[in-house]
């Protein structure tokens, strides 16, 4: 074990935004043992507070399902793989034809763009300075999109993904990471967590066989199958659990910490 790669939400971060003390101690023990650590998340760079405040992590984070690499120490985006504005608008057109009630947003390098209705159930305080506008307008001067999101109020996440993924395969790669909200995440075709993690490991001269990875949702599947030891959470999505022979105990039982403690003891 030379590199630990972990998803955040549902894997080490709870719905309350908290990371358990046991999990924090396990990652610190890995670092003290000389094991490299990288977090690989669907979250955008602007939403990494748990890593800063609870984990004390100052290294690089693979964000937006691999589309961006962010340095927490310098608070700077290092690399991006952008989805073209044209493909975003084409994907939006197709999805809207399938699901007229769908609403949309886009993560760009400088912030977050939303259309009317995407965050209608959020409080004004959470909306902050966001000004909803049609993407055709807000993306007019933008070079590309890190992550494109579509939300649908009336279907399950899996149903939404099953209908949309084949319909827009020529425009974007599509996945989802929310267990309860039909929220699709789209990025540049060919880009996913595994691709970005492989690039990161290569920079450290670490082979896949020496990587231990953890995840819980469909957007983690490629990473779990690429890593030499890919652990799906017992509390995770059935597709993630089916993708690998290794299963970590449930999130509520500090499953990632349990596995890391055992593997460190065996070093």
Write the layout of secondary structure elements.
Blueprint: E1 3-6, H1 21-32, E2 36-40, H2 49-55, E3 60-63, E4 68-71, E5 76-80, H3 85-98, E6 103-108, E7 111-114, H4 124-127, H5 135-138, E8 147-151, H6 157-167, E9 173-176, E10 183-187, H7 193-203, E11 211-215, H8 221-226, E12 229-233, H9 238-242, E13 246-248, H10 255-266
Parallel strand pairs: 1-2, 1-11, 2-3, 11-12, 12-13
Antiparallel strand pairs: 3-4, 4-5, 6-7, 6-8, 8-10, 9-10
Helix pairs in contact: 1-10
Oligomer: single chain
How many strands, what sense, and barrel or not for the largest sheet? 8 strands, mixed
What's the end-to-end separation, in Å? 8 Å
- So how many helices? 10
Major β-sheet strand ordering: 5-4-3-2-1-11-12-13
Radius of gyration: 18 Å
Please state roughly what percent of the residues sit in beta strands, choosing from under 5%, 5-15%, 15-25%, 25-35%, 35-45% or over 45%: 15-25%
- How many DSSP-defined strands? 13
Principal-axis shape equals: globular
In helices, the fraction of residues equals 25-40%
Helix-strand makeup class: alpha/beta
Low-confidence stretches: 122-128
The residue-averaged pLDDT reads 94
